[in-house]
């Protein structure tokens, strides 16, 4: 299947991930048009502009700023009211605002994957529910992975915005819930079908006309091992939506709908024009890259990923042909999630300093055959979506062949995630708290990569503070330090990763979630590849061994060592400024032995 970001689609007749016989949305004709002439795919059936009102550039920019401020206020509301550290500390969320035609008009800072996935998810949710069935005050929950563009614990809530009887827009908030009745607590690492991954809501009203749907909320409560956290986070997302709704209506009242519609149209046109102009300035051509995931969580076999990226005629095409078929284990990507990672790369290449809107991704075309690694269909498992993280690096690896002077080397190759699940000795309650560790960023043609930073796919995501991890779990951190010699050597050095030594003070399960430990991240222009991610369980004992994605039972006194990857090097290490090498040795990033053997600097 090919997905175009102008709202259109070319389908080869195969299923796009919906359940058998349910692919036609409620209230829609087969051509995607409703009986009232409105389209469900974001396009206007009459081809008209939202409004022909003329406005000056200053007014358009003021309206845009108001919309962005409203999205940021939604973000602040979610952070202040959520119960779950992965939301209020890590910022594992994404929130977006849309016009009545389902076009993105503003978003708040959050996980880039979530922001791109919201576009796909909202369209699917509205198709399923039907516009005619939406009323003021409704809030809809969607976590069906093939429509939600994520796994089942990334809960998407959306609501319509009405002025009187007129539907004028939509708001969307996605955030990670900690438990929704999957077969295992915390995180599912070895599911073999969707039904092992939690309770599914295909587009279900949790609020109807502003009134909570008690039956649905109780269903959620009784299917969670940590109901207080989950219901608290649901209410926090609803609060964020209500905040956005109030601000959206205030903006419409302040400027008038014709002016807002005209400003949105200008934003969208400008976004598309900027992207196409930036693409025209990039090298034109097609480039292919291959990489491997460690395994799928069920078998030990490595999993092939392949991508071909083409820049031509003002379009950015990403084709995943050549990748593995869908796997037995839960690393398969819903197609909407695949589109989202491609949006991340396109945005970074073309307009990294500008806010996103519908127009910025119109030139994107994504191809992945249904039933393959990058286009999961029912009931293929999708819970461990680290595939998308590694795939961001894969797309950049392909592009770097055509523009090595514009791109950095690989940044760690993956996100080293970990979690502990157990019973807290003070409260007697179950805990499940996670962290995504930092990695070294890849070196660029002009400077070293950052040390121990959130992976490039993580946007403004943060690590979980040690104080939270120690207080709310059974982990005690004996050591946290920069990992010497982990960055790839080069004329410019890759950033170094991190080392953590953990001792467990209560029994439980330790979950490591990493999909690239067997192969090194890539370097550029003669730079060297860095040390990969590693997880060593029970170090210094007869049980010591390395794992990647694994659920490990731990007892009091057991230990784990986490070693995160550095970034790839850029350029010949022998061309590095000797003073920079000496500084690296003094600061502990490079060992004296490596300075002599790799960089050729003896006097360190």
UniProtKB/TrEMBL annotation:
Stretches for region Disordered: 1-53
Domain Hydantoinase B/oxoprolinase residue range list: 56-573
Coiled-coil parts of chain: none
Protein name (Swiss-Prot/TrEMBL): Hydantoinase B/oxoprolinase family protein
Organism this protein belongs to: Streptosporangium oxazolinicum
């Amino acid at each position: 299947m090919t997905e175009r970001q102008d709202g259109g689609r070319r389908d080869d007749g195969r299923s796009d991930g919906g359940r058998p016989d349910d692919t036609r949305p409620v209230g829609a004709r087969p051509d995607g048009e409703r009986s009232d002439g409105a389209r469900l795919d974001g396009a206007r059936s009459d081809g008209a502009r939202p409004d022909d009102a003329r406005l000056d550039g200053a007014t358009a920019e003021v309206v845009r700023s108001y919309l962005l401020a409203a999205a940021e206020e939604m973000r602040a509301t979610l952070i202040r009211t959520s119960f779950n550290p992965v939301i209020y500390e890590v910022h594992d969320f994404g929130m977006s605002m849309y016009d009545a035609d389902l076009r993105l008009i503003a978003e708040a800072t959050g996980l880039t994957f979530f922001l791109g996935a919201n576009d796909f998810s909202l369209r699917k949710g509205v198709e399923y529910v039907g516009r005619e069935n939406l009323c003021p005050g409704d809030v809809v929950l969607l976590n069906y992975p093939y429509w939600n563009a994520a796994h089942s614990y990334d809960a998407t809530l959306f609501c319509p915005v009405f002025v009187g009887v007129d539907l004028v827009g939509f708001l969307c908030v996605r955030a990670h819930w900690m438990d929704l009745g999957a077969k295992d607590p915390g995180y599912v690492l070895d599911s073999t079908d969707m039904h092992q991954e939690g309770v599914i809501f295909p587009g279900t009203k949790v609020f109807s006309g502003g009134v909570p749907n008690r039956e649905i909320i109780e269903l959620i409560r009784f299917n969670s091992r940590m109901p207080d956290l989950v219901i608290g986070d649901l209410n926090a997302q609803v609060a964020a939506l209500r905040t956005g709704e109030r601000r959206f209506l205030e903006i419409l009242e302040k400027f008038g709908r014709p002016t807002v519609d005209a400003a949105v149209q200008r934003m969208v046109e400008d976004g598309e024009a900027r992207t196409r102009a930036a693409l025209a300035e990039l090298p034109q051509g097609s480039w292919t890259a291959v990489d491997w995931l460690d395994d799928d969580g069920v078998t030990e076999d490595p999993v092939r990923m392949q991508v071909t990226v083409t820049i031509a005629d003002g379009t950015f095409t990403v084709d995943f042909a050549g990748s593995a078929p869908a796997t037995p284990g839960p690393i398969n990507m819903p197609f909407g999630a695949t589109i989202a990672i491609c949006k991340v790369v396109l945005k970074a290449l073309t307009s990294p300093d500008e806010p996103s809107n519908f127009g910025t991704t119109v030139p994107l075309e994504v191809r992945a055959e249904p039933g393959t690694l990058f286009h999961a269909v029912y009931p293929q498992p999708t819970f461990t979506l680290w595939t998308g993280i590694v795939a961001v690096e894969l797309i950049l690896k392909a592009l770097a062949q055509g523009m090595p002077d514009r791109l950095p080397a690989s940044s760690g190759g993956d996100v080293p995630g970990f979690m502990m699940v157990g019973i807290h000795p003070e409260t007697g309650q179950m805990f499940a708290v996670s962290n995504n560790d930092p990695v070294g960023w890849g070196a660029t043609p002009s400077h070293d990569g950052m040390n121990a930073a959130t992976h490039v796919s993580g946007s403004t995501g943060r690590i979980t503070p040690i104080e939270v991890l120690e207080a709310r779990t059974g982990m005690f951190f004996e050591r946290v330090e920069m990992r010497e010699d982990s960055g790839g050597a080069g004329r410019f050095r890759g950033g170094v990763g991190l080392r953590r030594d953990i001792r467990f003070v209560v029994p439980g399960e330790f979950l490591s979630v990493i999909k690239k430990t067997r192969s090194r991240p890539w370097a550029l222009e003669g730079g060297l590849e860095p040390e990969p991610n590693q997880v060593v369980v029970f170090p210094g004992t007869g049980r010591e061994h390395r794992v990647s994605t694994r659920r490990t039972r731990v007892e009091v006194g057991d230990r784990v060592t986490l070693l995160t990857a550095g970034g790839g090097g850029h350029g010949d290490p022998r061309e590095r400024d000797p003073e920079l090498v000496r500084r690296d040795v003094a600061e502990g990033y490079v060992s004296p032995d490596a300075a002599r053997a790799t960089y050729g600097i003896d006097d360190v």
